[in-house]
Target: Hydroxyethylthiazole kinase
Amino acid sequence: MATPDIVKARNRVRSSQPLIQCITNTVVQQYTANVLLAVGASPAMLDHEADAAQFAAVASGVIINFGTASSQQFLAADAAIEVAVSAGTPWVLDPVSVGGVDYRTSRIRAAARRNPTAVRGNASEIAALAGMGLGGRGVDATDSVDDVIGAAAALSSATGAVVAVSGEVDAIVLAGPDGRSAQVVRVGGGHPLMPLVIGNGCSLAAVTSAYLAAAKSAGLPITGASALEAVVAAHVHFAAAGHTAAQTAQAPGSFAVAFMDALYTVGDAELEAVDLRFEPTEVPA
Amino acid sequence: MATPDIVKARNRVRSSQPLIQCITNTVVQQYTANVLLAVGASPAMLDHEADAAQFAAVASGVIINFGTASSQQFLAADAAIEVAVSAGTPWVLDPVSVGGVDYRTSRIRAAARRNPTAVRGNASEIAALAGMGLGGRGVDATDSVDDVIGAAAALSSATGAVVAVSGEVDAIVLAGPDGRSAQVVRVGGGHPLMPLVIGNGCSLAAVTSAYLAAAKSAGLPITGASALEAVVAAHVHFAAAGHTAAQTAQAPGSFAVAFMDALYTVGDAELEAVDLRFEPTEVPA
Amino acid sequence: MATPDIVKARNRVRSSQPLIQCITNTVVQQYTANVLLAVGASPAMLDHEADAAQFAAVASGVIINFGTASSQQFLAADAAIEVAVSAGTPWVLDPVSVGGVDYRTSRIRAAARRNPTAVRGNASEIAALAGMGLGGRGVDATDSVDDVIGAAAALSSATGAVVAVSGEVDAIVLAGPDGRSAQVVRVGGGHPLMPLVIGNGCSLAAVTSAYLAAAKSAGLPITGASALEAVVAAHVHFAAAGHTAAQTAQAPGSFAVAFMDALYTVGDAELEAVDLRFEPTEVPA
Model:
């Protein structure tokens, strides 16, 4: 993959203002909505089963996160995913706390089998979803990103999704069509205060959906290299904003405010300053 | 209508501390509660169907918003509205995203037929509820305020409610008893950052309920001119706070913080500086 | 009780990072999660009835608050409490708005009979739960802390819980084994802006659970004097952060941000500067 044009990708989000249907946990709905607005997208948290499919048909992207899912939300997600898949609308799975409890895990695994465009989680979640780890205990990452690159590649190969592993250095992984090799893009710049603001991971998944939706409205495919680029660009946007916020804030309350500001004001130079590394890996047999 | 005494109206809210029952979407519950506290009201987000009617009987005002309504919330709203109407307690409908999806729309329309004291939405929502527009796509306003003054007047005539249309310049509309003419009050001072903070519209609906409740506890009628004045005063309070916040904040994270502060600290001169214009309009046949 | 070592207690929370299962109202989930992260704990808002018991078995502490409880949340709470009690995991009841409405009140009373480790509420809630008051109207305290010390002592005697009454000066009450005398610890330093930030009370209950969980993981009993100390320490942490926040913030928006920062940065000297008073009381017959 060539170095992606992050600035162009961000501009696409701002100009297309993608409408993102968020079926997500109630803890982070407000934060996620504000994050989407800050990057130029338009949030809608519609999660009633009676209306979810109809809304998914007009949404530009969908994000699914079962962090506090009610039975109604599970039904709404089923309906929205079905529409998104058949319409070719990008949908992103955030497998929060997969592996920790049985019922939620079964629902997340079922969703993962339905062709998500991207999956974003922390190292423990990605390992658990790939079937190789013990799962998180809450929303913590107890595994490290480096430990789960192989798991991420296997998950990408099994689902077709771009798989993003969040950590101090993020890893974005896409298995190749041969099923044996995978590309890995490392996005640096994570800050220790980021995990102390609840919803940063969940809202990054939503922004990932917005970047994929903007790519699609520009006529780009949301598979292969251009999907990988869109996911990387979303992560770069977050990393750049985190870097900016850390210049002025040293504690989580003021960091959250500065981060939201920085998502909105992020300039070209800040995006281009984020450290990107490209490396290949193998998909474990 | 004479120029309303906004300062007196704000003081009434602070001294009566109206208890506002908010059956509203989970995205904005926290923000709405903080906004109500900042203006001097007391929030209660009670939305269980078993208790909603009993609580509505002691509430000073009710606000209904179906943005993420569960089946339980719909039942709770039915019960609370019935009590509010029969007790003469002001209740405000925020028809968020009406017209976008069928089930929610049917529930909003049913609620609108139950004598809301006021309805507050963006231009697309007001047009959709009045049956003249195509509805919003999410919480965006795709129509302009000017486009929907006639629709707002028709909605006011049909429901008896004061109808508030939020935009860069808000329009507050009340149809006269003859059903053909309507008063329109324009409240200036909206700021481009306001729509980038999720919950500003929903919490304005809650504050509108607080101003109506405070008017009622002062012995004023919550129909006709004094209802119109209370709704205008709530919008002026928001506009003044937005103006103050914009003096110090240029991005949505810090704007939200400054806005909350300004709702709390807003002074007499700031309220009186908000631009108000009065004009008549006709109710479309 | 000797003066508790608040610094050591805070350090225990930071080093043990207790995982706190929060079955709490949707208004304050985000704020509570951020507060738990700021003090060094790990939040999980898991509230689905299918998974609640399984998760409670791995949680370090549980907090129950029925502020917006759905029927699903009531079932989840039943399951989580049962596991917590049989595993000896500390669980804290926040009886928000008990006494105001019948169904919620019946559920809160039923929970209170299941051996909570601590109960935290405002004066009206504690009085109502003890059966001696008229209950709150929303989340307001209409009684004063001083009025309800006897009620708190009776509630402590009846349930075995440490009972914390929040107010400008908090009172933490523990009835002795004789059922007639009780210890009272007063924690000063509350600030008038604290009740204007929604979720401060609910999140204090969650932090109380974190302090109890940290005590337990250090091998301390979570009954008697060491439970009392843990509850006091949580309240001191809050009071110190409130005091720090009030140095820079004069309105609720910026106060909430400064308070979150201060929870995270709170130093030894700030904790030790909080005013503590010890006094005995009697349990009313």
The two ends of chain A are 24 Å apart (CA to CA).
